[in-house]
TrEMBL record:
Belongs to the TonB-dependent receptor family. PROSITE patterns: TONB_DEPENDENT_REC_3 (PS52016). This is TonB-dependent receptor. PANTHER family: CATECHOLATE SIDEROPHORE RECEPTOR FIU, FERRICHROME IRON RECEPTOR-RELATED.
Length: 782
């Protein structure tokens, strides 16, 4: 049941919309009309898993824009995360710790010159902010593939109107379905590998006097594929829509997500191969290297302390993640005249969670400060911080988070002939609170109850806030009987940042709670693009965009050193694109060439603090990255196969290199870690009858470096997947649709290393890719 606080949030969002001046702001949902076409030119490739060209290859867009259709989303494995969905798109190097991409600390993305934290995500017009696991709003918590209409990605630069302070170019939009016109019930049950069980149900009210709604619920339970522990997820989505007339409507949405899992360890190549100088004491190696399912019997390393051996930190109950998120939004779309329309969205997000990690006895105890003891230990803090207890064995490391975001976006569009003038704004306040401390276990036992009344030492207790204001203006001009479309626009982005409290253990030692502030702003970030219809079937397009982003991990940056350390400049980018599209009866394709310049890259290293003689390790701007390459995607449906078989493929060539050295590290000209030169994907879909669709696909990723100096590299790999959908068009009694789906990921059980935790010049750690995974789903509709 919703708390009073959450009910009040909906009212606050609604009030914000009502109080927002709408006369000067609006959003256009429609681009200028497409050129007139004769009957021959409208014949395009079709199929149950083939989308309209405007979606598949981004027809009429000035940048390379590719989408995942609803049909493809429904054929994906049940419960797939919003991030894992992207791996089928050109240019997106997506790595995940598990087949569905649910484990937050095991996911990574690399596209062109950017990683996961430099991509903007938008859900039904609501910006998802930063993607940090601590305090952020990673998209995989907020979407359900059964409720998505499509996922649209711009690899180079999203539209200037889209709200984001995280994006240095790439933007991904998730658009959910509207309530159905008819009363209905959908239920789906899935079973799979690793004792996977997922139930999904959705109820639609149908449309009654302009009012329609739906609500859905899913529950997912599974074992961790690599080691002991479980994954548990509950997810609720609801939407109410009132259609005022055929041009205006109001929609309220609610989302709830509760997630809990046990971690699995990141490992080095030496651990993976079992070639460490000292063999793993528990005999672990390979892809199934995991935490321990029981507390081992280890030798005592400190007399009198039963659980003093540091290897007790390998027990799986010491590695836990839990998150609970609520998201409310209220959107109004209005068209008071034929030439003017506007849209306003208010939203509120509430989040909380915790994470657990172990700390060994000797680390918790520490040395006296005069002997060089770290401030993050009991011995250093016990005479300064009241209420501490001596460590008893293995310590329980608890991090807690809570926060809220509230914001409003508004867009308005004026149509004059074939042209468009558009303007809008986005304002948001993001408040965040984090704590971290080490506590005793009962008797120091790794399996003992955590004693939260016995803190051993304190790590942090701070609050931070981000206040954002983004303005934009844009015009779309059409010429030559609308064959040529030119877009010109710019945005202004202003971010105010504050952090106060105990940011790190040294703040406790020095009895200080500093209040630090910074601001990043750029009032002119231009974007320009054009698309030209060379023929009714072919287009050329080009675009240029500049972006600025909130420094990644700002809380970590401002917590890493003493208060005298200056804050960094914002990271910036310039993105160039040019390409061509074709849309023919038996194939469509898009080719984009790109060049990206990414500046003010952030890196932590030791150097003198400006204006002092003190040397500290802190984050600094150290130069740039340049990326260039090409992306090709398309669909082919040969006539010779009589429409029963079609093929899809995409290929990406991408080179991303550092442009500057920093400190004593010569990295200029080195490849950026996790940058794969080649990413190739291909699939074949077969429709032998109306009631069956089958697909097999393969994905190739070339070798990648794991550190900045390029001294360690992992090899390439190929992964194959398949699915079969049975039952399209079949009905039984009251069931208007019954479907059975089989999914298998990693058909050939390829053993490989996926996600990289990159380093500067040392061996990195990795997440082994998931093994072969099966799913079977049965779905019925009433």
């Amino acid at each position: 049941m919703l708390s009073i606080r959450h009910q009040a949030a909906i009212s606050a969002a609604a009030l914000a919309i009502c109080l927002t001046p709408s006369a000067g702001f609006a959003e256009s949902a429609a681009a200028p009309a497409a050129p007139a076409e004769d009957e021959d030119t409208i014949l395009v490739v079709t199929g149950r898993r083939v989308s309209d060209a405007s979606v598949a290859i981004g027809t009429d867009q000035t940048s390379n824009t590719i989408s995942i259709t609803r049909e493809a989303l429904l054929s994906a494995p049940a419960g797939i995360s919003g991030l894992k969905m992207l791996e089928g798109l050109p240019g997106f190097n997506v790595q995940a710790n598990d087949a569905l991409g649910l484990y937050e600390f095991g996911n990574s993305v690399f596209v062109r010159a950017f990683n996961f934290q430099q991509i903007g995500f938008v859900l039904d017009g609501v910006p998802m902010g930063r993607s940090d696991q601590f305090g952020g709003s990673p998209i995989f918590r907020y979407v359900e593939n059964e409720n998505l209409q499509r996922v649209t990605a711009s690899q180079g630069a999203g539209d200037v109107s889209l709200p984001s302070y995280a994006s240095l170019g790439p933007i991904v939009q998730y658009i959910t379905t509207q309530p159905a016109d008819d009363l209905g019930l959908i239920a789906q049950q899935t079973f799979g590998s690793d004792d996977f069980r997922r139930s999904f149900v959705r109820v639609d009210t149908g449309e009654h006097g302009g009012l329609s709604a739906y609500a859905s619920y899913s529950k997912l339970d599974a074992d961790v594929w690599r080691g002991p522990g479980t994954i548990d997820r509950e997810h609720v989505e609801a939407k109410i829509r009132y259609e005022i007339d055929d041009r205006s409507d109001v929609t309220a949405s609610f989302l709830y997500n509760d997630y809990f899992d046990y971690d699995s360890p990141a490992i080095s190549i030496a651990q993976y191969k079992g070639t460490t100088p000292t063999p793993d004491p528990f005999g672990r190696k390979g892809r199934y290297f995991a935490y321990l399912g029981t507390v081992p019997n280890l030798s005592v390393t400190v007399p009198g302390i039963r659980y003093s051996n540091s290897l007790y930190n390998q027990y799986f109950k010491q590695a836990i993640n839990s998150r609970t998120d609520y998201l409310y939004s209220l959107t109004g779309n209005f068209a008071p005249t034929d030439s003017f329309d506007f849209s306003v969205t208010g939203y509120y997000e509430d989040k909380k969670g915790y994470g657990v990690s172990p700390e060994a006895y000797s680390t918790s105890l520490g040395l006296p400060p005069r002997q060089g003891g770290a401030p993050s230990a009991y011995t250093a803090q016990k005479d300064i911080v009241p209420g501490l207890f001596a460590p008893k064995g293995l310590q329980y490391g608890l991090s807690t988070i809570e926060g809220s975001r509230v914001g409003v976006t508004a867009h308005g569009t004026y149509h004059f002939g074939p042209h468009i003038l558009q303007a809008g704004f986005w304002g948001e306040n993001d408040d965040y609170h984090r704590t971290q401390a080490r506590y005793n276990h009962q008797d120091g036992n790794p399996d003992g109850a955590p004693l939260l009344g016995e803190p051993v030492h304190l790590q942090r207790d701070y609050r931070s806030s981000r206040e954002t204001l983004q303005l934009f203006a844009k015009t779309v001009l059409a010429f030559d009987e609308e064959r040529l479309k030119i877009e010109l626009g710019f945005k202004s982005l202003n971010i105010d940042y504050k952090i106060r409290g105990y940011r790190n253990p040294a703040d406790y030692i020095n009895r200080r709670t500093p209040r630090l502030t910074d601001q990043w702003k750029d009032h002119f970030l231009p974007q320009a693009g054009l698309v030209y219809n060379v023929t009714p079937q072919e287009q050329i397009f080009a675009s240029y965009a500049e972006n600025m982003a909130l420094p990644r991990g700002a809380d970590d940056i401002f917590s890493a050193a003493s208060p005298i350390v200056p804050g960094p400049a914002a990271e910036t980018s310039k993105n160039y694109e040019a390409g061509v599209r074709t849309n023919r009866p038996t194939f469509n394709a898009a080719l984009a060439l790109f060049y990206t310049q990414f500046d003010n890259r952030l890196q932590s290293f030791a150097s003198p603090v400006p204006g002092s003689t003190t040397t500290e390790t802190f984050y600094q701007n150290v130069g740039g990255v340049k990326s260039y390459g090409a992306e090709l995607s398309g669909v082919l449906k040969p006539r010779i196969l009589d429409g029963a078989v079609y093929f899809n493929a995409n290929a990406t060539y991408n080179i991303a290199k550092f442009q500057d050295n920093y400190s004593t590290f010569a990295i200029k000209g080195k490849r950026v870690p996790d940058n794969a030169k080649w990413l190739v994907q291909a699939g074949m879909t077969v429709e032998p009858a109306d009631w069956i669709v089958a697909n097999v696909s393969a994905r190739y990723l070339s070798s990648r470096y794991s550190n900045f100096v390029n001294s360690e590299k992992i090899g390439d790999y190929v992964i194959a997947n398949a699915y079969v959908d049975i039952g399209d068009g079949l009905s039984f009694g009251p069931l208007k649709s019954v479907k059975l789906r089989f999914n298998v990921d990693n058909i050939f059980n390829k053993d490989y290393l996926g996600t990289i935790s990159t380093t500067t010049n040392s061996p990195a750690t990795y997440r082994p890719g998931p093994d072969r995974t099966f799913q079977i789903s049965i779905r019925g509709e009433i």
